[in-house]
UniProtKB/TrEMBL annotation:
Single GO term (MF): gluconate transmembrane transporter activity
Keywords: Membrane, Transmembrane, Transmembrane helix
One Gene Ontology term, aspect cellular component: plasma membrane
Name assigned to this protein: Gluconate transporter
Keyword Transport: no
TM annotation in the entry: 6-24, 31-54, 66-87, 152-170, 190-213, 246-264, 284-302, 314-335, 355-374, 413-436, 457-474
Amino acid sequence: MNTAGPALLTALAVSIGLIIVLCGRFRLHPFLAIVLSTYTFGFLAMGIGAATGAEERFVDDLAGTVAQGFGSILMSIGLVILFGTIIGKVLERTGAAVTLAEGVLKVIGKRHPALAMSLMGWVVSVPVFCDSGYVVLSPLQRSIARRTGKNPVVLGTALATGLYASHTFVPPTPGPIAAAGNVGIASDGLVWVILFGIPVSLVAAVAGLAWALRRTGDLESHLPDARQTFEEYKAQFERLPSTGRALAPILGPIVLMAIGSVAAFPSGDGTLVDGALGAFLTDLGSPVNALLIGVLLALALLPPRRDAKALTTWVAEGLVDAAPILVITGAGGAFGEVIKGTPIADYIGDLIGDGSAVSGIPALLVLFGLAALLKTAQGSTTAALIITSTLAQPLLPALGLDGTIGSIPMGQVMAVLAIGAGSMVVSHVNDSYFWVVSQFAGMDVKTAYRAQTAATAVQGVTALSAIVLLGLVVL
């Protein structure tokens, strides 16, 4: 093993580098990049095993291992991702996202438009992709800029960073859900990712807001005055749902997952809620069942004269949005399964010994750095979350990130948060979100680098600081 270990680490580094080159330099889709890198690592590992005279062949059945890893991860979180994207699409198409935005503006008031934009972005992006959320909320951003005289770059950056924060850290957004599944967090542990992800995401949102207020006020926007008032924009919808109905598809699944987790919390020789009631609450709170209920609550937002064809189109659009995430997630699961087929984790464990040098907080820094490298190279936050979490899963015990506090998988939760922070750094020209923000806020590329790119760097580093402080307490 001492002979094979360094070679396996080198092979893993080559495979990760191949993902970066294929995505960044050749613009290959992350799915194909991960698959090709998985097979590259698998063949290299088999060759290393044969060359070093290992007693057992590394990755004995490469094709079978790839298929098993692809299928097992989709079996655990595939429906969760599908249901989440359908909820987001219906909220977008029914105008519920606009209702949520208006509600936030009423609470915050018109004196603090940048704070309102940041907070409404944070709320909307919990179920809705950040780029879709920005498109939906951009008419409101333009109207508020016109009403208040606030620089559109300031409001645009505040909105973009608010959306970005919850998009990266808070399920049911698919990225953190996939990352949680990849590192081995079971469905009943997903609520802990939500509970710890919310405060970290709020820290990131505040950092983005501070950058928008302090560093973008002198930047020029080429956005013309909004010709369409927000009232005219709202008139595009037949009837906007109430705030309570608009919130239901978001809060419903979160509350159900929280109840299920509390019911399953260990208490004495059993759980906090035993018997048939406990089993019912736990089952109801599983992410698949909770998000299915969220889908039903979202469908209830449809106007009385519902158009079956329109609904079918919206669901189809949600499935189209989910497809890239599903295949990237499956490919990531396959990569992780191949890594598990080698003794690389044992070798890393031997390297770090008692873990004093690498485990715990230093391990969080390593995961942050890897995620940031992948994000910057290939552009997709979701892909960076998925790829890094896939690589991290078999290494968590060696990195000291497999510990628990009671039933809370704290080490795994902290790993997801560190990966999420790294996956924010940075949004630039290879990121579709960069172009959505720059175009809808009227920024040229140079301005967008000073606003959006710099803000996402500040968000990621600030979130990491909060995660490190939290890690000092819980790890």
